[in-house]
Design a protein that fits this description.
The complex is a heterodimer of chains A (650) and B (242).
Chain A lengths: L1 H6 L2 E6 L3 E8 L2 E4 L9 E2 L1 E4 L11 E3 L1 H9 L4 E3 L9 H7 L19 E3 L2 E3 L1 H20 L5 E6 L5 H13 L3 E7 H10 L6 E8 L4 E9 L2 E10 L4 H20 L7 H17 L5 E7 L5 E7 H13 L2 H11 L8 E5 L6 H10 L18 H14 L9 E3 L6 E4 L5 E5 L7 E7 L9 E7 L9 E9 L11 E7 L5 E7 L4 E2 L1 E6 L5 H6 L2 H4 L6 H22 L11 H17 L5 H14 L1 H16 L4 H7 L17
Parallel strand pairs in A: 1-10, 10-11, 12-17, 14-18
Antiparallel strand pairs in A: 1-2, 2-3, 2-4, 5-6, 5-7, 8-9, 12-13, 13-14, 15-16, 19-20, 19-22, 21-24, 22-23, 23-27, 24-25, 25-26
Helix pairs in contact in A: 4-5, 6-12, 7-8, 15-17, 16-17, 18-19
Chain B lengths: L1 H11 L32 H4 L10 H15 L9 H22 L1 H11 L28 H19 L5 H38 L2 H33 L1
Helix pairs in contact in B: 3-4, 4-5, 5-8, 6-7, 6-8, 7-8
Classes of the chains: A alpha+beta (650), B mainly alpha (242).
């Protein structure tokens, strides 16, 4: 019975530039699934351990543990790989100016770029696949059962190649990607779920690396996207890079130290820049205080006004897409009933001010929606869409998402101009049928170049693929009539089919994607096929369950040393001891379910103790110590991660 | 010959349900017996919405139908269905979306219906890009010849000025005036088109082919003018917005 339920389980994944999350529907509420460390966010960071002593292949780590390596061995870490998805070699090259990692030396133009990671190199979809596999494992650990089907979110403004690369990553991670959902649309789903709303809403999504704006109409449970626009190259990363560049320049001119050649120092400085950025969302001023390799200190105060001036040009780049989206949807700001803010960068006060100005909110006595955590809302929406796809759920049976294609689809015509065949903002699935013929006597091939974008010349648009129609029966020029059907599916990905109408023959099409991997390449990159360290599923779950048991037992054993222990009643202590003994007794057994239950029981028994310790920690922090130091003093295990921790809604 | 062949193919398709073999109604999306989705039968955009081809449409009703059919046909409803049903859902829902996009837009709808009726007209507004320099003089409506000539001079002057980094304010306000005027002319055309819609619909209702052909002819001329004007307005707007 339970097995039947889990077999149908579809999870929702937000594969972000900075952080990734996995969520599912618990009854009628979407919930984020935490990782082993109790955190809902898995940093989209992938690191390669130094080659292991056993001489095996070095192992890949993902998330917080990978992020820790970033400052010590930056050459063994990759982050923000989403910015590289579906892009060509030269594009990636210019993008990497701001990153400590480099392209592999043997990569050639026209190939899918590979990034050097330690002694190995990986394509961007492979790196993303590692992040996805971590999320998959987190979900499997949570459910105690395999998870094979997922909905993954992508920026609404992602083009065909970027979408295909994301789907490829899912396949490499062992996930059947049932649907790609646009991030702003997912956010709208998360917000619209519990209220039977009608009206027009705008979703302003400024994340780590991408910006999207979508305008939707809600009616009778149908979320109909009217228009979307954005910039797949604009986000919090750009703000970090800007602050970093300023700091590097100042350090160079004031202290004569050029840190640009020292990746580790650059990463430390980047972290300081990010911290300053985050601080400035709540504090009027932030400080840089960095020790330089020559012993000098780089100290600088950044008042919020200065910060706002500096980032103004970046934020202004979000204005034009918003205006275009309103124009395309045929609405003026006054017709927008609600604005939803998504993405960590929307925490910046001046961003909220800009949104207020763009949509005339304050003037109308309105405020943007920020009730759901902007870091989590996309994953929550993905879980809702996953539930819709799984079907047969009361909570979502009335909901339907009708999304659009963000970019026009065209074919290159004579003289290099573009003939548009599907306009941007067309509801998907969308299709167009075109007829082609031959220009030369006896010609048996016709080549079609498909592009995406709004510009008049094919060279200014994004090349999508070249299709070669083959096997046309030899006839006089202009006589064959080849019908080609272009169809953009519900994932926003193009499918093409062709038919020669006189012979009725299905024409053969050879597709050469301009950017992207072939099916065979993806097949060869499926993670578990070369990851021989992979345990079989049950064994892995057992090991993880034991590890969790060990973690909590170690914390409980240390507990009597804490002053908080004295505050517990005798009854509470007795219950903890009983739960502890039970867990110790069964933890070496083979039943992972039982171990997990015993772990949860012990965790629940110690919950009040954990709360008392947290209070003590806060008090310590107020006495002048940082929270982090307080945590260190008490050991890492104080708030033993509650394996079933509910999602935090802030 | 070719057309005849095509139409026999479409009418011959799926007379019986693939799942339960029950007899299907023409252009059925679903089997009335077992409720299974059917392969697309090649109906026109009006048939998708079970509408008689008419130019005056109740847009609220159209939206309602669009939502109702989307709920049934969208690929989200077939995420775990067989590969064939998935493919049909994709084909059916893309046809539905294409139909809705065309019919809800007054100009696209007019073009579509006239073409359905065998009218030979130029390129559509939606779905096509105007090839560069097509805005030649050959099809300039006679009454606009002088103004268009003047306007093109001004546009050229404006673009040249921009290149040099100068903005001639007088020129700018002249162009804004012209934009306003041509927008007004567009509205006039739209009004006339609406009147012809009613003529066409009534003629189709009563089977009066002469009246219908007259309305059709008039609409073709109006659409030509409308397209010409909207290209002009677009050029002015673009030049002003640069």
């Amino acid at each position: 019975m339970a097995a039947e339920n889990t077999k149908n389980r579809v999870v929702g994944i937000d594969l972000g530039t900075t952080n990734s999350l996995v969520a599912y529907m618990e009854g009628s509420t979407p919930v984020v699934i935490p990782g082993v460390d109790g955190s809902n966010l898995v940093p989209s960071v992938v690191a390669l351990d130094s080659a292991s002593a056993e001489g095996g292949r070095p192992t890949v780590t993902v998330g917080n543990s990978a992020r820790k390596v970033l400052i010590e061995t930056p050459e063994r870490v990759i982050y923000s790989v989403k910015r590289l998805m579906g892009r060509g070699v030269s594009e990636v090259q210019s993008e990497l100016k701001f990153f400590p990692f480099r392209l592999a030396k043997d990569v050639e133009e026209g190939e899918v770029p590979r990034v050097q990671l330690g002694e190995l190199s990986f394509t961007p979809p492979e790196i993303s696949a590692y992040v996805l596999r971590q999320l998959k494992r987190n979900a499997e650990r949570f459910f105690g059962a395999p998870v094979t089907q997922a909905v993954i979110t992508v920026p609404a403004y992602f083009n065909d190649a970027q979408r295909q690369a994301t789907k490829d990553a899912g396949r490499m991670a062992g996930l059947d990607v049932l649907r790609l959902v646009n991030e702003p649309t997912a956010a709208a789903l998360a917000y619209g779920l519990d209220r039977a709303k009608e009206g027009t809403i705008a979703v302003y999504d400024l994340g780590g690396g991408t910006f999207d704006i979508s305008i939707l109409k809600l009616k009778d449970g149908i979320f109909e996207v009217q228009s979307t626009n954005g910039d797949t190259h604009l986000g919090g990363d750009d703000i970090d890079n800007l602050l970093l560049a300023i700091a590097l320049d100042e350090i160079h001119s004031e202290h004569g130290v050029n840190l640009r050649q020292q990746p580790g120092a650059v990463q430390a400085l980047r972290k300081a820049a990010i911290d300053a950025k985050i601080q400035l969302s709540s504090a009027p001023v932030a400080h840089f205080d960095i020790e330089l390799p020559n012993g000098d200190r780089y100290q600088r105060e950044i008042p919020r006004e200065v910060f706002e001036d500096v980032i103004e040009p970046i934020l202004q780049r979000t204005a034009a897409p918003c205006k275009q989206a309103m124009l395309d949807a045929g609405v003026i700001p006054e017709q927008i009933d609600e604005v939803v803010l998504v993405g960590g960068s929307t925490r910046i006060p001046v961003v909220r001010q800009l949104v207020d100005d763009l949509f005339h909110l304050g003037a109308r006595g309105k405020k943007p929606h920020i009730e759901l955590n902007p870091d989590e809302v996309v994953a929550l929406g993905a879980a809702v869409q996953a539930d819709i796809l799984a079907g047969a759920s009361k909570a979502t049976e009335e909901l339907l998402l009708l999304d659009v294609t963000p970019l026009s689809l065209g074919i290159e015509a004579l003289g290099g101009t573009v003939a548009k065949i599907i306009q941007r903002n067309s509801t998907i699935p969308a299709s167009a049928t075109e007829h082609f013929t031959t220009g030369v006597e006896g010609q048996t091939n016709v080549a079609i170049h498909v592009v995406q974008g709004e510009r008049e010349l094919a060279a200014d648009c994004r090349s999508l693929a070249r299709f070669d129609l083959k096997g046309i029966p030899p006839m006089s020029a202009g006589l064959p009539r080849i019908e080609v059907k272009f169809l953009i599916d519900a994932d926003g990905i193009l499918q093409v089919s062709a038919r020669e109408q006189r012979s009725g023959k299905q024409a053969q099409i050879e597709v050469k994607p301009t950017y992207g991997l072939t099916d065979e390449q993806v097949e060869g990159m499926i993670l578990d096929s070369f990851d021989h360290a992979e345990e079989d599923f049950a064994k892995r779950l057992l090991i993880e369950a034991r590890n969790e048991a060990e973690t909590i037992l170690a914390a409980v054993e240390k507990a009597p040393e804490s002053p908080a222990w004295a505050q517990l009643t005798a009854d509470e202590k007795e219950k903890i001891e009983a739960a502890r003994k039970h867990l110790v007794a069964i933890k070496s057994g083979e039943d992972q379910q039982a171990i997990r239950q015993a772990t949860v029981a012990l965790d629940q028994a110690t919950r009040r103790f954990a709360e008392l310790m947290m209070e003590a920690a806060v008090t310590t922090a107020i006495r002048g110590k940082t929270m982090e130091a307080a945590g260190d003093e008490m050991g890492d295990n104080i708030a033993a991660p509650h394996p079933m921790a509910p999602a935090e809604f802030k | 010959m070719l057309n005849a062949q095509e139409s026999t193919i479409t009418t011959a398709a799926s007379a019986a349900c693939w799942a339960c073999s029950a007899q299907l109604e023409a252009a059925a999306l679903f089997c009335a017996q077992c409720g299974k989705i059917q392969p697309p039968s090649g109906g026109n955009f009006f048939a998708v919405f079970e509408l008689v081809p008419r130019l005056n449409l109740d847009l609220g009703m159209l939206e309602h139908q669009f939502h109702r059919l989307s709920r049934k046909l969208h690929p989200d409803r077939f995420a775990r269905a067989s590969a064939e049903e998935k493919e049909w859902s994709l084909a059916q829902s893309s046809l539905l979306n294409d139909a809705y996009r065309t019919l809800k837009d007054p100009l696209a709808r007019t073009y579509y219906l006239l073409k359905l009726n065998g009218a030979e007209i130029g390129e559509e507004f939606a779905g096509r890009n105007r090839p560069e320099n097509e805005m030649g003089t050959s099809r300039v409506p006679a009454d606009l010849l002088e103004e268009v000539f003047e306007l093109n001079m001004q546009l050229e002057e404006m673009r040249m000025g921009r290149k040099m980094g100068e903005v001639d304010e007088q020129l700018q306000s002249d162009l804004k005036q012209a934009e306003k005027k041509f927008l007004g002319l567009e509205d006039e055309v739209d009004e006339k088109l609406h009147a012809e819609w009613t003529n066409w619909d009534e003629a189709a209702e009563s089977g009066d082919e002469t009246a219908r052909d007259a309305a059709q002819k008039s609409m073709i001329a109006l659409l030509d003018r409308r397209r010409y004007l909207s290209n002009l307005v677009r050029d002015v707007t673009e030049t002003l917005g640069e």
